[in-house]
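lol ok so funny story. i was supposed to be doing the assay writeup but got distracted and ended up predicting the structure for this chain instead. priorities right. anyway since i did it might as well share w the group, maybe its usefull for someone
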Amino acid sequence: MTVYVGLARAVNLGGETTVRMADLARVVEAAGGQAPRPWLRSGNVVFEAAPQPTDAIERRLEERGAAVLGRAPEFFVRSAATWATIVRGNPFPDAARSDPAHLTVMVLKEEPAPTAWRRLEDAIVGRERAVGRDRHAYLVYPDGIGRSRLTASVVERALGTRGTLRNWNTVTALARLAAAPERGHAPSSERSRRAATSAGP
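and the output, tada:
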């Protein structure tokens, strides 16, 4: 089995986006994943599955999300090995140490062309910094994310693909969770219930 990190895009932002983490675990299990462990209440889950292309897992999660939740959140999946590479490849180590809440990673559906990364640089009008690597964009918001004109939609338009954003605290927490998969003999549904109960805001 391979450990994967799954991210649901734009959940728990209020209103119809609300997804309980126990239901997110149910979606993973319905899609064939095992031992799902949600992290926080922002659509993050670590789980195990047979080795396979991540885009195939994303499609099944979106299909099962529609059946379980009544709507289909967009999913972004990376293997634990790829997630560890994201952490190791951070081009902003100073920001990771001094201000991890304002260092973010946008996980992308497709790898942008070199010209798209240049469009992203041209879209920056403040003190933000951006570096792209493969299907991931590292973004630093020294003056805060909420007030920045470099919004997620601006980044997506520049890169020509969709993505979902996580701050560095969440990125590294998911890396630790994925590197130490839960062991034991409790049924996966019970593990899911414990993980969802223990998750903080």
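Residues 37 and 192 are 6 Å apart (CA to CA). Residues 54-69 form the longest helix (16 residues).
back to the writeup now i swear
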